[in-house]
Every structure is written in C-alpha cells, then in structure tokens.
Fold this sequence. Notes:
Blueprint: E1 2-7, H1 10-17, E2 27-30, E3 37-40, H2 42-46, H3 55-64, E4 68-71, H4 74-88, E5 94-99, E6 102-106, H5 117-132, E7 136-141, H6 144-156, E8 163-165, H7 169-177, H8 189-197, H9 203-207, H10 211-217, H11 220-229, E9 247-257, H12 260-280, E10 283-294, E11 303-314, H13 317-331, E12 338-350, H14 366-379
Parallel strand pairs: 2-4, 7-8
Antiparallel strand pairs: 1-6, 1-7, 2-3, 5-6, 9-12, 10-11, 10-12
Helix pairs in contact: 4-5, 10-11, 12-13
Protein name: DNA polymerase V subunit UmuC
Family: Belongs to the DNA polymerase type-Y family.
Keywords: DNA damage, DNA repair, SOS mutagenesis, SOS response
Amino acid sequence: MYALVDATSFYASAEKVFDPTIRKKPVVVLSNNDGCIVAASPEAKNLGFPKFEPYFKLKHVLNKHGVVIRSSNYELYADLSEKMMNTINQFSDQSYVYSIDESFLKFDGYASIVDSWYNYGHLIRRTVWRRTKLPVGVGFGPTPTLAKAANHAAKKFTDATGVAVIHDEVTRQEVLSRMDVSNVWGIGRRLTKKLALMGINTALDLAQQSPKHMRRQFSVVLERTVEELNGHQCLEWDQVKQRKKEIYSTRSFGERVTDPSALKAALVTHCSIIAKKLRQQHSLTKRIIVFAHSSPHEDGFFKKSFIQSFPVASSDSTVLAKAVEQIFDSLFKPGVKYYKAGVGAIELEDDNFQQADMFNGSQDKPQLMKVMDQINKRYGTTAARLGSEVQSTGWTMKREYLSPRYTTRWADIPTIKC
Length: 418
C-alpha cells in the first residue's frame, strides 16, 4: 500500500500557523515582487479568486471581500515543510519527499499492524496538525498513481473527510469515475484536450483504455499511467534523489536597477544561492553563466551574458563571486534599467569523483563554507553572507505584505502573553 500526504493550500495554510486571527479568513499569497496570486486558502477559492492572476487586477475586489494578502515568505515555508515531512515520515519506514508539501509513504508488511487505513490516515492528519498546525489530506492506494487519485478524492470531493482509501475494485471505480482525467497524475492540459477528442473525460475512461494502444498513440509514460490506474505498479520512486544537472538562481528586481553596486550585489547573492545548492547535493560546477537584461516590454531592450569557466570545479561561494567580479565590467552597461539578473551552474561534477588539475589547485575553502552553512541553518539563511552581497539593497525583491519569519529570524520569534 502507498500513501500520498500533502498540505492543503500549503503557502496560504503556512501563513495561518502563527497567526490564529486569520485562520478562518480568506488568504492569498503573491509571487515574487508581489506580482501574481500563487496560492489561495479554501475560503479565498470559494470566493472565486483564481490562481496566477495579476494582483493589481484583483486588488480592489480582494480588499472589498476582506481577503488577507501575503507576500511569499519562503523562509517560513521551507522551515514548516521540513517539520511537516519529519512528522509524516514517522508513519512509515519508507518515504519519499515529492515536493515542498507532498510526501509519498510506502507500507510493506503493515497489513498485520494497521487495522484500518482510513483510521491510520486520520491519525496522520491529527498528528501533523498537532505538531505543525498544517491541514493535510491523505490518500491510500495500491500504486503511487492510485494513492495520488485517492488524495484528490480526500480533498476535492464534496463528501471529502481529508482521508480516502482505494483498497478494492469498488472504491477504485468509484473514485476514478468521479475524477476528471485532467486530475490524473502526469496528465497535462494538452494531453487532456487530446484525450477529450477520443471521448476520454474521466480517470475511469482512461483506466479502461488498452495500455499498449495508449503507448502507440502517446507514450510509454501514459501506458504506465493506465497500468497504475488498474492497480499494476509500474512506477518506483528513487531511493536517493537524482542530482540536478544544472542549477539556476534568477530573479526579477522589485524596482529597475541602474546602480552597478546593486546589480553586482544581486549577482553575488545568486552565486551564494547556487553554491549552497551545489554543496547540498555534493556537486561542483565547472562553468557558470552570468546574465542580466532590461525588460523586453520596454524600448531599448538590452541583454548580455557571459560563461565563466573554472580550472578546477568549485562549490565555494567566494570562488563563484570572484568570477562575477572578473566579468562584471563587461556585463554592466551604464544607463540600462535592469529588470532581471541571474547565475547558473551549467556543468556539474560529483564532488566524490572530481577530476584534478596538475597545474591548478582547488581554491575552495570547504571548512569555511561548512561553518557558513551551519550558521545560516541555525540562525537564518542570511546570518552569514559575503561582504559583496550586502554592499547594496537597491536590488532586493519587493515583498510589501511579508509576514514575520517566525522560525528563522530572532526578531520575529512569536511572543506569548499570559
């Protein structure tokens, strides 16, 4: 048996954890620079506010309905996600974190331990709520795809209770018949339209197709989906997450940037971000790409990028930052109103199998980076930074409605008055 546990409207729910005054109010969370709505609580969805709509278009209506607005608080979300996953993983000896708010569990040999999967699901929900105050849905099924379908039923069906179990042919057909094919795991918009032309509108319609025919018409991926919907396991999650082959850090600015110090500070910050991600997955980069450009919607569009190579692959923030220093004068053009900038690590190596260079030694300082990572893990992501990161704050992202970072910033620790 498999289970998929995920949070309900995770970003919006996370905003309510430390602020009980808004727990019953509609909440929407905005994207970078407060651009679009990226998350909405169930209360906000019931009012009809769609995701991915520009905030400025809906600002007046949101205010009229008393909707609480929040900027994306990534530090808070990451910390709450870790707490939620640690809690969920206690319910099975095999788990796989699928995304920031979703985790698969696998149960081998649990039949003699668990009397009722339905009750077990509610135990998971209660435990996660008690420890994190995050509402979750739990779906059980004999395959990962059916567990995902059950999770959809647990949260979206009109008679949903937060837990759903597909454990026999009756429950399988009932759930799949009530489920639109677009909600099947891995079925996107284009594929949904093509399947509709074939008269395949529900998940049950798809499950009743010939797997081989679906493979010929579409792909082996859809063939496996059909098999999984019929209870035949074809998908396996990775025991160890695959390392990324490229790592990017990019962001548009809260306001147009014309100051060279501000642009350089932004690029160095991106270097620190990708260097940290490299260290987390035990990788090194042989080359980075550095770019900056103005808005393509404004006159005089300007874009420039450089690829910088390293004699010895690196994951040291200072080494990557030094590379930015070397090419910055060629990248920056006075008078340009920069809209976006970023850095990408594009040629990665495993740090356990590094190709040494006879004539060039590594410039990395692993002990220094280890200490910096430990400080930032304990005291917040920006507790220890490179000096060139903070030489200017004129480039920073606009987050006008940012809530306190309750768990990662000393000044924002909740105060309890008795």
